[in-house]
Amino acid sequence: MFYRPEDGHGLPHNPFNAIVSPRPIGWISTRAADGSDNLAPYSFFNAIAYTPPQVMFSSTSAKPDRGDTKDSVANIRETEVFCCNIVGHAQRHAMNDSSGPWDRGVDEFDHAGIARAECDTIPCARVADAPAALECRLTQIVQLPGKTNFLVLGEVTGIHIREDCLRDGRFDVTLFEPLARLGYRDYTRVTDVFELSRPGE
Which PANTHER family does the UniProt record give (predicted)? Predict the structure, then answer.
């Protein structure tokens, strides 16, 4: 089949998210100017540069109590920092609990029973037992086409790695099985890996 997005796909459910998958999940923690914490998962998330290390996530909807966006972007506008927490399979239910459209006063750490720790390089909370966490300073927020689409870019200023996720000096994803988003309500986890050498290596 072929379709133009502006004409519609004609299927029972939009296939776009299923086509671009799997997508890593950035469990984004932020702190508002008033000191309140927020935690929410985003599957439009990835690393985008090595030197300096940089990441991105995008928010594609809004809440009535936040105007044109959601809590994460609103908080980052105020404080210009955020933390990208990596989600292991064991944290799937807590991650899902934190994804609800809660009022801005709801602390998802408390709501979902998630232990928090303070970041080292930025004034923000992180998920204490995340396999890894990337502390970030905002570099820019880009308004994308679409009323509520915002791309958030940040430079990584500190990296936490859980000790039990290291094997022989490597961050071994099979030890915590990172969660990834597919289409619809589907998720997957990484349970095995294989290696390919680039031509000329």
Answer: BLR2425 PROTEIN, FLAVIN REDUCTASE LIKE DOMAIN-CONTAINING PROTEIN
Total number of domains constituting the chain: 1
| Containing structural domain, residue 28 | 14-189
Q: What is the pLDDT of residues 74-91, one digit of tens each?
A: 999 999 999 999 999 999
Does the pLDDT value for residue 105 go beyond 90? no
* Distance separating alpha carbons of residues 52 and 35, to the nearest angstrom: 28
Q: Which two tokens stand for residue 26?
A: 């950035």
Q: Residue 23: inside a domain, yes or no?
A: yes
